Amino acid sequence: MNFLAKKADEHFGKRDVVEGSTQPLRSIDETMRAITWEGKEKVKCSEVPKPVITHPDDVILKVTACSICSGSDSHLYGNEIPAIDKGFTMGHEACGTIYEKGSNVSKFNIGDRVVVAFNIACGQCAYCKREEYSGCDVTNDSKMNEEGYGGAHSAIFGYSRLLGNVPGSQAEFVRVPVAEVNCFPIPEDVPDDKALYLSDVLCTSLHAVDMGEVGSGDTVVIWGLGPIGLYAARWAQIKGARRVIGIDMVPERLALAKIAFGIDILDRSKLSSKEVVARLQDMVPGGADTVIEAVGFRFPITTKHKVQRAIGLETDTADILTELMTVVRKYGRVSITGDYVGLANQFPIGHIMMKHLTVRSG
User: Fold this and answer.
1) pTM of the predicted model, to two decimals?
2) Mean residue pLDDT across the chain
3) Among 182, 341, 345, 348, which residue's CB has the most CB atoms within a 10 Å radius?
């Protein structure tokens, strides 16, 4: 699939982007260490050329902290995202200090500490002006993305040709395009290990809760207790949810959710999809006000979806989406923040219509 996707990318060609290219210029004599994708379930720490200022709006960030995304990076690791090249620098969660800056950058000075947004926005297109930054029209050069989804998505650091092929931030240095839009100052009293969460985890989990319109007195059920699911639970509590239930099968995650976050948990490790739904319906008679999907497309539960994914009849599974839409109450709210990138069979559209559901994603 990866080979065919790269051929499709070459066939469609490239879109014009705000700084002329998603690729940084590289030093001819300086190198750095970076985590690179080398094939399915294979990454390594490589010596690669160091990026240099490519456009007057750029900065070069010296990375002082970065992290591994338990969702998106594991999709790349498993070779589930099309059109990724061997030797590509991974990562989209980072903070650091301004090492160099372009001539147009006046908002920041050399040495300033900043956290970097994982998605890259121009700040000037119609989407950015509406603060719909993930829909930025001019930072992703992939026509394949535009053709596949009916419109371009913003570029993302470290995430394949489909999303701009922008070298990622699991590296000693990273070029940040349109720096005054995509870098955010870190207060002096906030350490790196806290500021880092603003690059993805805290804002994505808040977005999930906002999409679900969680409010005072609500009951919320969350599928997936990775970093996004756990922090979505905390945001739901902050928003006033009366009860939060989290579902997972990893013992450490379930224990953390119960002990540190104080939410109810459901261990699904020995349960079928029907049994999960039945347990939740017992726990929440009448259904949850908001359900949040924080798992993603790679986890089929039922045999039919395991088979369909294995033989290429679908790319994404609808198993967990069906559970969500069964458990949510009539006129309830469905928030989908786990990655879905392709096509899912047996998508429960009838649930949406017959139960008057509001479904939001992103």
Assistant:
1) 0.93
2) 95
3) 182
**Rounded distance between C-alpha atoms, residue 232 and residue 224, angstroms:** 10
Quick one: CA torsion of 158, 201, 250, 345, rounded to 10 degrees? -70
The domains of the chain are located at: 2-199, 202-361
Q: What class does CATH assign to 202-361?
A: alpha beta
Beta-strand pair 219-223/243-248: parallel
Main-chain dihedrals φ then ψ at residue 123, nearest 5 degrees:
85, -5
Got the DSSP string for 126-153?
HHHHTT-GGG-SSS--BHHHHHHHTSPP
Helix (H, G, I), strand (E, B) or coil at 247: strand
Cβ atoms of residues 246 and 324 within 8 Å: no
Beta strands 219-223 and 288-293, pairing class: parallel
Helix (H) / strand (E) containing 273: helix 273-283
Place of tokens 């005054």: 180
Q: How many residues make up the chain in this entry?
A: 362
1 pLDDT above the threshold of 80: no
The fold of 2-199 is: Quinone Oxidoreductase; Chain A, domain 1 (3.90.180)
CA distances for 311 relative to 283, 314, 315, 322, 345, angstroms? 36, 8, 10, 21, 13
Q: Say if residue 332's pLDDT is above 80.
A: yes
**How do residues 46-73 score in pLDDT, each as one tens digit?**
999 999 999 999 999 999 999 998 888 8
